[in-house]
UniProtKB/TrEMBL annotation:
Identification of the protein by name: sn-glycerol-3-phosphate import ATP-binding protein UgpC
Record's GO cellular component terms: ATP-binding cassette (ABC) transporter complex, substrate-binding subunit-containing
Domain of life: Bacteria
Keyword Transferase: no
Single GO molecular function: ATP binding
Keywords per UniProt: ATP-binding, Cell membrane, Membrane, Nucleotide-binding, Transport
SUPFAM superfamilies reported for this sequence: MOP-like, P-loop containing nucleoside triphosphate hydrolases
Amino acid sequence: MTAGLRLRGVSLSRGAVTALRGIDLAVPRGELLVVLGPSGAGKSSLLRAIAGLDPVTAGTVAIGGRDVTAQRPGQRNVSMVFQNHSLLPHLTVADNIAFGDRIRGAGHRAAAARAAQAAATVGCQDLLARRPHQLSGGERQRVALARALVREPDVFLLDEPLANLDAELRLRMRTEIRAVHDRLGTTTVYVTHDQSEAMALGDRIAVLRDGRFEQVGTPDEVWRQPRTRHVAAFVGAPGMNLLPGDGPLTLPGGPATGVELGVRPEHVTLGGTPPDPLGEVERVEVLGEDALVHLTVGGHPLLARVPAAARPAPGDRVGIGVAAEHLHVFDTATGERVPQPTAAGRAG
Ligand SMILES: Nc1ncnc2c1ncn2[C@@H]1O[C@H](COP(=O)(O)OP(=O)(O)OP(=O)(O)O)[C@@H](O)[C@H]1O
């Protein structure tokens, strides 16, 4: 039976290193929450704190309304899947999946039946007789998921489970993980540093930076209304351009000091006429239908994503247009979003 998850004021330090700083988080029952952040942000530490693998230095963890802070990992009924799937090489797939059940004392037959069922859920029922070295990376991944599913955990914790797979397999597996989640409805916390994976998978995304959440919201909210400049720059492929408020791009009211202006590469239009500022094209990368145009404008780098058919050439000078509603404003000192009373405010 799945259960919701609640963290209150959770901090985690290891010696001099503080990995989590007062994390508050509520994951409703059945939600798939993606924790997104750069390397070292504290993502694995957060999962380890939830699983009970590392004791928290402050705060509480509750699962299904029950305070589990003092409980050992084995008492919490959470399943964790790590990036390196750590299958036991000498056991068959069936025995790997059944392993946890067996060490908890289940009979061979019951464990094998449950293993077969879990294998079918993730589509690896044809691999049961093989050993790990006879599996592809994606198949190993599926087996690791099946092994975690067998426990019917209250909460599923996935730590970059697709990190070692090639691009095509990552895409396929993330669709499968979402499908398995939709079928089982197990409360899930999924860690990744890949923002496109986060956008595609999450009911909500929690952006972690330096042991704190910068924003927790739906993929749409995080993309459209980033709460900080860090979220703006981290989410998106590529992330948001950030320029000084008194630089080449300006708000409808004119240049502004003490703020930064953000604009997504997708919202920069090229080929405008004065008063649009002129930018110089440095480099163009064609990505199928779209092209990524690297420009400099008033000495600042700027990226634009435009249809490949309409791309300029390196060395061209082009007018740079940004509609007011696509400008985001951030306080330079705090990095926080500044709400706008203008059209830009209505959009953001
Ligand atoms: N065993 C440890 N002892 C001391 N410090 C650690 C230990 N494990 C992690 N840290 C530190 O805690 C902080 C958070 O690490 P964590 O592994 O949680 O980050 P992460 O976001 O998962 O990073 P990555 O994406 O690189 O795995 C980092 O500063 C890291 O150096």
